[in-house]
Write a structure and sequence with these properties.
Elements: H1 29-50, H2 53-66, H3 72-83, H4 87-100, H5 105-117, H6 121-134, H7 139-151, H8 155-168, H9 173-179
Amino acid sequence: EEVITEPEGDAVRALPVAFAIAEQPGEDEATTIDSRIKRLRDEAESAFHRGAYEKAIATFSEWHQLEPATPRPLTRIGDALISLGYHDEAVGFYRQSLSLAPGQVDLAVRQARLLTNLNRKESAKDILNAYARLFPDNTDILFAQAEWLYKQDRSAEARKRVERILALDSTNFNASLFLL
């Protein structure tokens, strides 16, 4: 005869939230989870803006546990780590966020700039080149490539990228400023 025993410790809390029973009769579990996610997101952003980065990281991590396929909490953990001076660790969180949603061009550019600042120039170049292949007419990628090239004393190549940006968007202020 099979005997059902009560789980020990935190075994019940380890189950995915989707299996949780609502706290109050009649509450919809999805609504409960959605409201918890919203509360965590708001708390984490508030902590971040107050400069309470450790609290923000903890709260963004909770949000990520509830929504592991959402890239935003990983990005924000990376941002908080940068604010705390943990740049190498931030790179890993940016990488995870990009693996969930590779179309985040702005984050790819930020990661490449961070890698360049960490003197990991080849890794930065690889990211920029990969994104340039995926988004060949994206002016943000082209400008980031121009910046990278300029920092490597490759001004002529940087200028070509900027000229391409201006051919795509003649009103691009940053590109115009770069040529001065």
